[in-house]
Design goal:
Largest sheet: 6 strands, antiparallel
Distance between the termini: 41 Å
CATH architecture: 7 Propeller
Helix content: under 10%
Structural class: mainly beta
Number of helices: 5
CATH superfamily: YVTN repeat-like/Quinoprotein amine dehydrogenase
CATH class: Mainly Beta
Strand content: 35-45%
Oligomer: single chain
CATH topology: Methylamine Dehydrogenase, Chain H
Number of domains: 1
Radius of gyration: 21 Å
Length: 478
């Protein structure tokens, strides 16, 4: 039994990332309580940082760790799981050498300064996943995706999706329209002024259309919105100071500067032509993630954001890698009303005065109005500067109420993933991977999405600890 050291200043969540994660092969998962719903059929995929140390050297930022994928397949009341590192070339080189060789977002390459130029940053493939008919893509925004086998998670290598030429990146936050099958995404190409590359793919992932637009400076753009006939970018006032990065005296994370005087720039794109509809500007804020967007009856674009007042969140996430956090960084669920033809913001409204991250909607509602937004948050009264997200919740936009699943002390759920029941369209489930620091173990919990405040309908045991992950997806059985 794992016990928590009461004297340590580190919180219980830190134990999940203290050691590199252990892979496991395809394994039937024990049912710890309840029963797997008959209509829950498909695969949950999750991606996240699984290794924050090699050869005694620790990564400089949570974003720097090597990615590993968890797949949990549900078939006729049985669940199997598999967990594997993405076999990027950088991961394989460092594993063979037994030491870190590359720099990354929050660290320069080890060794003499000329290593900064000789060793480009490593594609860590650690942020999200895209399930396609014949492969799974491990996504990381500063490089190309890696293709994996949907069942075994064996890595086959980088994938250009039929259209990613050299120097083009493919972000972690694609948007898939369930009605048309189209997949939209973007990538930022750096230079003295960055280029925003926008991609439209068919349902197989093959890129069928591209567009490119110059931006002011080099901003940090992590996510975007599909809203009806529009693609919308909110470009926060964060810019890269290129000189210290070029000469190798600073890493990317420490070279990114908060410049609120720039405001938040807005770019509205037509989803059919990928042409610019309008550009605009509004007050400064930062966001990693959007919940959703849609066009209302009046023609306004409605966008729901996990909004930060500044860029302190980057320092907090840097501290996560050490197992101790001190920097407060609160994000709230905020709604923006936007006129698409002018990019004029007509209102900004806080929907919920609670810390909110990883907001999502059911896949069938992406780009359309959704009654429910699912999210991760904190137990009431917990210190936001020292804790990791430990509650999953559902916000009902119709009744303006929040329903929470409180998992108890020292338990940390991943981003909640919505799964439609294949037998009953009125029924859906919410899946999360839980790290339980009380027993130093990981489990998969399945909730009835309409009864989040009751106990889970099912809990499954996992063979090894899954560190706190970033993003996942549900791939329903065909």
């Amino acid at each position: 039994m794992h016990t928590i050291d009461k004297k340590s200043t580190k919180k219980a969540w830190a134990s999940a990332i203290a050691q590199p994660a252990k892979e496991f092969p395809v394994t039937q998962l024990p049912i710890l309580s309840g029963k797997i719903p008959d209509g829950l059929r498909g695969t949950l995929y999750r991606n996240g940082v699984a290794r924050l140390e090699r050869g005694g050297i620790h990564m400089g930022h949570w974003f720097d760790g090597d990615g590993a994928i968890l797949a949990v397949n549900f078939t006729q009341g049985i669940a199997t799981g598999v967990y594997r590192y993405v076999q990027t070339s950088g991961y394989q080189e460092e594993a063979a050498a037994g030491k870190l060789l590359y720099g990354n977002y929050g660290m320069t390459a080890p060794g003499p300064i000329w290593n900064q130029w000789q060793k480009p940053i490593k594609n860590v493939a650690n942020t999200s996943v895209l399930a396609l008919p014949d492969k799974l893509l491990a996504l990381w925004e500063a490089g190309k995706p890696h293709a994996l086998n949907l069942q075994t998670l064996e890595t086959s290598g980088e994938d250009d999706l039929g259209g990613l030429s050299k120097g083009l990146n493919y972000s972690a936050h694609y948007k898939r329209d369930k009605q048309t099958g189209e997949i939209f995404n973007f990538g930022i190409s750096s230079g003295l002024n960055a280029t925003l590359n926008i991609y439209k793919s068919d349902s197989t992932g093959k890129i069928i259309q591209q567009a490119a637009y110059k931006l002011d400076g080099v901003p940090l753009v992590h996510d975007f919105i599909l809203a009806g006939q529009y693609i919308v970018f909110f470009i926060p006032p964060v810019r890269l100071n290129i000189l210290p990065l070029l000469i190798g005296t600073n890493n990317y994370s420490d070279s990114v500067e908060w410049q609120p005087r720039l405001g938040t720039q807005i770019l509205v794109i037509d989803r059919v032509s990928l042409c610019v509809v309008s550009r605009g500007e509004t007050e400064p804020w930062y966001q990693w993630h959007f919940a959703n967007g849609y066009v209302d009856a009046s023609g306004s674009v409605i966008v729901d954001i996990a909004r930060y007042e500044d860029f302190q969140t980057n320092q907090y996430l840097k501290e996560v890698a050490t197992g101790e956090t001190h920097t407060p960084a609160k994000s709230t669920l905020t709604r923006v009303h936007l006129h698409p033809q002018t990019s004029k913001v007509t209102s900004i409204q806080q929907l919920l005065n609670r810390h909110c991250e990883f907001p999502t909607v059911p896949q069938q509602n992406v780009g359309q109005a959704s009654r429910y937004t699912y999210m991760s948050t904190l137990q009431t009264g917990k210190d936001i500067s020292q804790e990791l997200l430990n509650v999953i919740a559902r916000f009902d936009h119709k009744t303006e109420t929040l329903t929470e699943a409180d998992l108890g002390e020292n338990r940390y759920p991943s981003e909640p993933i919505h799964a439609q029941d294949i037998q009953n369209p009125e029924q859906s489930w919410l899946l999360t991977v839980v790290y339980d620091a009380n027993s130093h173990s990981s489990e998969v919990w399945v909730f009835d999405s309409d009864r989040l405040d009751t106990k889970p309908v099912c809990k499954l045991g996992l063979p090894s600890v899954i560190p706190h992950s970033f993003h996942g997806t549900w791939n329903p059985a065909s």
